[in-house]
Amino acid sequence: MITSKDLEHIGWLARLELSEKDKEEYAPKLNPVLDYFSELDEVDTEGVEPAYHVLQLSNVFREDEVNTKCSLDQEEALSNAPNKQDGFFKAPRMM
Amino acid sequence: MYDNPDGVMIGLEVHVQLNKLKTKVFCGCATDYHNDPPNSHVCPVCLGLPGSLPVINKKAVEAAIKIGLALNCKVEEHTQFYRKNYYYPDLPKGFQITQYDFPISSGGYVMIEGEDGELRVGITRAHMEEDPGRLVHEGTIDKSKYTLIDYNRSGMALIEIVSDPDMRSPKEARRYLDKLRNIIEYLDVFDGNLEGAMRVDANISIMGGQRAEIKNISSHKGAERALLYEIVRQKNVLRRGGVVVQETRHFDEAREITLSMRTKEEAHDYRYFPEPDLVPLKISGWAPAIKETLPELPDARRMRFVEQYGIMDDHAKALTSELKLAIFYEDVAKKAEPKIAAVWICDVLKGELNYRDLNIDSFKKEHMLSVLELLAGKKITEDGAVEIIRTLLDKGGSPEEIIREKGLVIVEGDIVETSALEAIRENQQAVADYRAGKEKALNSLVGAVMKKTKGGADARTVREVLVGKLG
Amino acid sequence: MWASINELKERIHAGSSEEIVAQYLDRIGKSKLNAFIHTVGESALSRAKEIDKNDIEGPLAGIPVAIKDNISTKGIQTTCASNILKGYIPPYDAHVIERLKEAGAVIIGKTNMDEFAMGTSTETSFYGATKNPWDLDRVPGGSSGGSAAAVAGGEAPLALGSDTGGSVRCPASFCGVVGLKPTYGVISRYGLIAYANSLEQIGPFATSVRDVVTLFDVIAGYDPRDSTSVDKEVNYSSALMNDVRGLNIGVPDEYFGEGTDEKVEKAVWDAIHTLEDLGATWKKVAMPHTKYALSAYYIIAMSEASSNLARFDGMRYGLRTEDQDWHTTFSQVRAAGFGDEVKRRILLGTYALSAGYHDKYYLKALKVRTLIKQDFERAFKDVDVLITPTMPYPAFRLGEKIDDPMSLYLADVDTVPINLAGVPSISIPCGFSDGLPIGMQIIGKHFDEATVLRTAYTFEENTDFHNKRPEGS
Ligand SMILES: [Mg+2]
Ligand SMILES: [Zn+2]
């Protein structure tokens, strides 16, 4: 059961500001889903390896060679920035 | 035995940037951004643009294995990248690709000179990860009204070297850092002189209390300062009857203090999980092959220098403490008397360089060789040699020019004879004292001759000439 | 307006690509479907002109293509149907877009979708729901609903979607078109804005298997920028054979379970019998872990999504609210930029990965994923393809399920196991229920798209369902 207090913690972990109304509305929608997920408890997974990847690929590398084809110049890099200054992205104050 | 009166325990997390690679760790952006404008060495991958995907730089993996081996670690046969989920504006994806459950190497050690002799500092792990971008604050982080972000650094290959909490003083921490830098420079994967090449997070506790983690330390001296400050701060907390809390603190380099960074975010929960966009690495068999190619490391070279050149261990240690210096010495020692070369490079040149905050790149091997040659041929005095070295560092030029301009060539023969006779004639009192058995009176006569020869004569020779004439 | 690639090529040859592109743009302009978030009329027309003028060759020379709005297009706004990416113009092309451009295709616009591909109905779009061309009161399916509706409604001959848990096959089924989800790794994901990386693939839509294959051939293939891209050279057009003699079909009962509409069940069985008449054989196969696929799928998808969507902080692109301190701004940007379903999935995914719950949810789901994969491996020892319904029912009404997330999730029951196993699967029309299309799903072994496509093509060549068009749309 996710409580409204849990929601506040998860909301902070996910950096999603939740209003009081959100917290009230979300819990009743999320809890049935979590209930449903609990059906996995009944599956015997003793000794089963988790499938992090669906294909058995390994050792995929690139050589240490500069790829200018993909690079962006400063103007392109900043082209979508909502706020910028002197070639930097401009973010809010830290504290 | 060092009794560690404050019960200091220091563990360091050192981020070493593989800045000698041509490209970043997960994209083809060039690593030579250090003198370029912000956000000019970026691509969709290192900017974290939606839809971009990482691909591992093979050379970075090789460098990581080299470092693991040089730190006496076990290199794993299977390794995997994970996502570490946390938020900071320097982190363009909202997570950092790093290693977690299967780090590429772990369980090593580094030997340093501790407070009471050799100290073995354990290496918990040395893993690969990506560098975040660089933040610029207006003034200090706590006062700045905004934060500027440059992602040129974002995605640079890092090796994070985590030590055991084995260091017992800020001085040991600094020596550990020096040693680490020294070892890794030998591997030719990183240039320690570039900005941000080595960055340190320090964990420190005293008297078995909670530890503080100090972030944003960018130099070895800074680490020592931050730790000294932190010991005093923690002692003061205890003295006032308080409790040291576990927290992250930010080192303010300018003020040489640490600041609490405690906010709500302190409740860390990184939610690690394997990076689905990168497949596992199976690198069994790589380590033995790479081990074959490892260069001679500092400790081995130090021992060889003692054996091969017959120099003192202290000199060998100083000479191998920096790869460039070791190479400089060896090149010089091949053409000059190795023991004398060691003395001049360690005791004179290095001191003069340190005094000027310069490194060995600022002095030419040929110049060292000609200074040693002039000394061996008794063409200059030892004082003259020091003067030449200083002048070369301050003004440049060549030893020959400096000797000519400053008249540093040894004055011999007739001029010494004449000057000695003059000195005797002009200092009758001293002559009388000397003859009356006052040995010290000779010194003022030697001084007078030296003055006349403008320091160009060899003091020992002058003394001999005077004794002969007065005898 | 429902011309095939070959018909269009003839018309381009006789007339011009510009003319054709203009016709499609005109039809989109008058449409009630809301299949497109936006079109790029001017650049499409000038590209068509260029192709006409320079006689540019290529398998898709001059052919209009619609692109799902989660695939990055250089210089063309790409929003994932989310407010948080409003105005975002990627400075680079996805791998598939580069391939399309090389093949001479003309991109006409970006199609509507569930926000960040999180949905089964294309109702969660910030730009409003897309409507089903067969019944404007019904959903087109999702999350690639815009692409499927555009093809079904004659607004584009070809379209690209993405399929994380059925997002190509579901709308293909609801809209009565062909949609393919390839084997994981066959099409580069470079430039596809990630919802759940370990599950998703880009997939083609068309009105026929033949056209799907032509588009698939253009976009498939190795890309060194995607570490999960597979280096295999395949020519899929050789799969276009009207022949299923000797084919072994597996039919898993688990996919015809409770909640499956009778008419859907019957249409799929009729299709299996049709293939039997054409020389295939069929048998029942057991896939015992199917029941758990939905939970495993949603846990994995939401977990990955919670991390993938962490980059949307308003600093480098997208929506930015008024600056407070950084962490507060970050939280507010996301509160303002994401819709409810996206927020729910981020919260659940964050929860499933968080300290204390990671093993119960995330790790457990990955273990169940292994079991589901093994179900497929076991089944494919005996059979060449599996045939199931794509969706348990035809298109539902707009608004019918949107307030009950769980009932929407349940609609994906037959499509998500395929993504967990990473195998290829196609949805093709196989019948109608009260005027609404029914889709059949044909599933193959890893990298055996050829058999899947041959089965689909043979069925199509011997039936007429794919030639029906929605009236009055
Ligand atoms: Mg780290
Ligand atoms: Zn880059």
Quick gist of this model?
Chain A is an alpha+beta fold and 95 residues long. Chain A contains 3 helices and 3 strands; from the N terminus they run H-H-E-H-E-E. The two termini of chain A are 34 Å apart.
Q: What does this protein structure show overall?
A:
- The complex is a heterotrimer of chains A (95), B (471) and C (473).
- With 95 residues, chain A is an alpha+beta fold.
- Chain A has a domain at 4-41.
- Chain A is 34% helix and 9% strand.
- In chain A, a hairpin with a 2-residue loop joins strand 2 (84-85) and strand 3 (88-92).
- Chain A is flat.
- By secondary structure, chain B is of the alpha+beta class.
- Chain B has 3 domains: 9-290, no CATH class; 296-406, no CATH class; 413-470, Arc Repressor Mutant, subunit A, CATH 1.10.10.
- Helices cover 39% and strands 19% of the residues of chain B.
- Chain B contains 15 helices and 17 strands.
- Chain B has helices spanning 58-70, 170-186, 220-239, 286-293, 298-309, 313-320, 323-333, 338-355, 365-376, 382-395, 399-406, 414-426, 428-435, 441-452, 459-470; strands at 9-17, 56-57, 74-75, 78-79, 82-85, 95-98, 105-114, 117-130, 134-137, 146-150, 157-163, 198-205, 212-217, 247-252, 257-260, 273-274, 281-282.
- Chain B has a 9-stranded mixed β-sheet with strand order 3-7-8-11-1-12-13-14-15. A 3-stranded antiparallel β-sheet of chain B has the order 6-5-16, with no helix packed on it. A two-stranded antiparallel sheet of chain B has the order 4-17.
- The model of chain B has no long low-confidence stretch (mean pLDDT 91).
- With 473 residues, chain C is an alpha/beta fold.
- Chain C has a domain at 5-243 and 425-467: Amidase signature (AS) domain (Amidase signature (AS) enzymes, Alpha-Beta Complex).
- Chain C contains 15 helices and 11 strands.
- Chains A and C meet through helix 1, helix 2 and strand 3 of A and helix 9, helix 10, helix 11, helix 12 and helix 13 of C.
- Strand 1 (61-62) of chain A pairs parallel with strand 2 (56-57) of chain B.
- The complex binds magnesium ion and zinc ion.
- Magnesium ion binds next to loops of chain B.
